Model the fold of this input.
Amino acid sequence: MVKNKKLLVLILDAFSDRYLKYAYYLSKLRNENFYSTLKPLFAYEGIRTAILTGLDTRKSGIWHDKVFIPKGRKALKLSFLKFFTAFFDRLSPTDDINKKLRFLLYKILREDYGTPHLIPAKYLEYFATHKHEYKNIPDLFQILSKSGVKAVWVEPKLMSLEGRALRGMLKLFEKQDLVILKLNSLDRLGHKYGPLSNEVRQRVEYLDRAVEETINTLQARLENMSFIIMSDHGMIPVEKFINIEKLMIEETSIRPLIDYIPYIGSTFASFFILNKKAENIIYKMLQGLGSYGRILEEYDLNMLGINKELYGHIIFALNEGVVFFPNFFQ
Done:
């Protein structure tokens, strides 16, 4: 990066190319500049790691940002975290309000909230937002820093803060040479309302206008300004919902916290085994869901670089169009 050259990398989480018909400005940029499609990784936090290090999950070993703590965390503040989280769960009329309250609580307790989640209070002690180390491999920021290039990653936790983040780019570039800005609202709205919903369309239109205003401002005020706009994955409509927690209780004799700890995402579920008898029971039950997805076998885990001790002794990945609901995010 030559002196005084600036670069904004804008990552629109879950922006599908089908949304371009609602995004006049982004569509215009696509037609007038270089454009390509990317094959998404089967990863979560691992995508961020790939961007920063060039390593996929097989090399980095990083899949998503929550890792399992076998005996649970014993910190005193965890008692406060569990108490108030349970209180917010009862108090909050919507998931969005709940996540905002949790965000503030984690901030007060100086805990890393990570990806905004709704992990039930009873399971909180068994999970932590893991600060991954890249061992001997420097990340993008470390490499640039050695060359005197100032860079920062910006990722608003709340949808309401995304507009402010875009408007703040000019001021940020007074001190930075590279800004990577990741906006997650389309992913959250897509999960909540569906990728073809009016809510998603309206957000696409809003972001299109906001991005246009930001880019026009930066181009007018700064020289040598370049842009990369990308998405990490798209989203397709949901055809089937599965309540995995209900199935586990109704169709098995084992119980959470006694026999296993679940981690339920929208497209996968992980199970951390606490006693041996639970393993075969869970495995057999999940085999019965074979038309909706599949268990990741040892070969799959090795190929994807997924550490079972961190991310789940048994992991079930759903087919496209199928989601677990409720889950630890909805």
In short: The chain has three domains: 6-61+132-230, 66-129, 240-324. The chain has a mean pLDDT of 91.
